[in-house]
Amino acid sequence: MTYLAKPKLHHPSLAKNRVGYTRRDYEGRVSTLCAGCGHDSISAAIIQACWELDIEPHRVAKLSGIGCSSKTPDYFLGNSHGFNTVHGRMPSVLTGAYLANRELIYLGVSGDGDSASIGLGQFAHVLRRGVNMTYLVENNGVYGLTKGQFSATADKGSKSKKGQTNNDAPIDLVTLALVMGATFVARSFSGDKTQLVPLIRAALAHPGAAVIDVLSPCIAFNNHSGSTKSYDYVREHNEAVNRLDFFPQREEITADYGAGELIEVRQHDGSLVRLRKLHADYDPTDRIRAMSYVQEHAARGEVVTGLLYVDGEACDLHEQLGTVETPLNTLGAAELCPGSAALEKINASLR
Amino acid sequence: MQKIEAVNDFVVKFANINGSGSASANELFARAILRMGVPVSPRNIFPSNIQGLPTWFEVRVTEHGYLGRRGGVDMMVAMNPQTWDQDVREIDPGGYLFYDSSKPLPRAKFRDDIHVLGMPLTEICNDHYSDSRQRQLFKNIIYVGALTTLLDIDPAEIERLFSEQYQGKEKLFDSNVQALNLGREFARAHLKPIALKVERRDRVGDRIFVDGNTAAALGCVYGGASVCAWYPITPSSSVAEAFQRFAQKLRIDPATGARRYSIVQAEDELASIGMVIGAGWNGARAFTATSGPGISLMSEFIGLAYFAEIPAVLINVQRGGPSTGMPTRTQQADVLACAYASHGDTKHVLLFPEDPYECFEMSAQALDLAERLQTPVFVMTDLDIGMNQRLCRPFAWDDQREYDRGKVMTREALDAGADFGRYLDVDGDGIPFRTYPGTHPTKGGYFTRGTTKNAYAGYSEVGADYIYNMQRLRQKFETAKSLVPMPVLTAARYPARFAAIFYGSTGPAMQEAIDALAEQGIYINALRVRAFPFQNEIADFIASHSKVFVLEQNFDGQLTTLLVNEAGVNPASLIPVLHYDGTPITARFITQEIAERVSRLNVRPLREHMVA
Predict the structure, then answer these.
(1) Which of B209, B260, B270 sits opposite A335 (nearest CB)?
(2) pTM score, whole prediction
């Protein structure tokens, strides 16, 4: 971590986005994580994505569980409300917050211990319900805050810094997300900003449950040889299936593409996800094939990254529940209380 | 042989097999008496099972309006061969046994000191119905028919109930009336008259007949809850189900048909309280309903809501513990678990409703208190109140009543330059201001956490910050005393040295016991505690009596412990009187226990009307 305070004054020539904010307005407190931590790169990618998407910072609610990853919401979007909940239970708190106000943008930040170990149940169930959110897992295969124990995403046979071998089968959060019905599933690498930022942009705009599993090496406890979550290992085994561009509804599509096949997925809010295929046989709209593809490549020791699945017809929890458009937290007694006359009728029916 | 004789004051117990459709027939029996203007108090005694196990339904007919469980059985309707011996044993001497005599039973299966009324129900059903389900269901209606004749219950009331139930379904109405008359005719022709009678009175008034879970759910609708998250657990599940039923009718946007509420059946209790806390953090009124095991699971989250100061309402329909305990029996055994839920120094607000009316009132009030105090609030009902229909005052709502949303800092206040410290005590009452997420582009945002923090919500492990925060939380709990419902005093007719403290579902049995004790010349002042934290009036009440009986439906005397811990009372002045076998406490039990203890304390009335 650094002890240098960030200057509060911004240079007047900093570029502003459509809603009048500079990139600096999306920053938070100074990170207290280790220098070189993958998580800080992810925070930077979130800042970049929100600025580019012209999201007003205070319209984002950022929620997390417990762990190194879950500390990061303090380090971006400093004017947003954040909620550092309890270990492994962020999904339920986020669900409740989303029920209360459907108009905010919900960003859940979690880690592999938080989501794959203690919180595996809530991770699965929040996806089943189609909560409209971006669920970002900062996955390093290790418990950092408690100094180096294996997490449930550590690969079988990988070695800890102390030389122990992990004998347990790993939990693949991407496969689990696909099984559980997430409608946007991606994997990326904290060291690949050009891939990660568009994925976060698309996920934030996706009108349903979006999961990004971001491999984010732990510089202190899991970056040695023998680890399958180190910078070197992930770089060597990274198999990106596509490159993505995301166009919000209002943007005119001007990007110029060279050769290579394109896939366009129009989401039902009108926004467009455009993918340039890097693997000719990969179709990110085929959920079943995505699962086997990810598994086939994992068996060969490859880490498939990119937008692995997107459902253009995603339907979210509020749609399923049939709730009013107005956020529930703005309703008052006039809308919520049926009044004494209705109560008198109920009394009469109970005699 | 002696014959129990009673008009409008007796107990009929039905022994059935669950899943046989008996519950609705038995309820019909109870309602018909109610429609004759005579109060009844029914209780379902059921197993944790869906089909095939014994279940009982006890109806107390009580002209005096004593709605607690009385104890004893004047008439047993024995429809379950599995429990025959136990059921026959339970009848008071001189009482009545009504049974299905289709199969002959040996003499040894009966008693000499009770009156036996045999009716070949199975035979009658087999003669009249060919379908097996019909045989089962109409058997229940047929015995109700026979009972109306035996007890002088007006069959017109039952027919009226049928017509309300089967509106527009004439065939069903006709077949039910036919079954009822089959029973009536048989009883008239073949059964000897008995000396238990129902006579028409006007003792019910405008009271309503409803269960506490339904009432609590309606309280949440009226109190403005827009998020309900729950996980099924006996005996609380019907709270969320009733909320759904009411909200479907009462919470629909007339213009669009969309719902002004949301209900999520979560994957477990952890998730349900998590959702409630997320919604509360985000400014919606939210509640969950659960029972003891659910409270244990929710404990970590309850601590978060306490420390991060987030409103949440938990309706705890208590059952028998510990562990899975007695899932379908009643207790008041979660008092301490809720008062101090979660690790670290925590204390929570508890409300103790005594009947469905207060379940309605207190659930609505809990939503106000949770937002005013920014903390979890527990409505401590139990299975006896929650799952039994009880006669109570009609629900009331003042249309002028506004929701108390507590201290919420608005965008305007932030723009005007208000000093926003999320955990800053600005008014001296320990309650800080909060902002809803998304309030202002640059001001009022903060990071909510379960870790320690300073008054401006910044992470801090500085001792002084921690102490400030803990003392403010204590101050807030003091403030709660002035907001929670006051205790209710029932003063003795004569100055009394002895007193009793009771709470929750013990209420009706206690009121009856006070009368019974007075008849024996034992006068006691009785205080019904309705909330924790305890007001000073409770400590004063205890201090002004030499001995105070504390009536509880648990084994450890949990409220007694809480009184000693939190009200600073002399432990020697408290005498716990504990009922904990899982059945609702009875007036007979209370009367006997108190009378015995009073006599052991060597204080007897010297003359009639003297003070005990």
Answers:
(1) B260
(2) 0.95
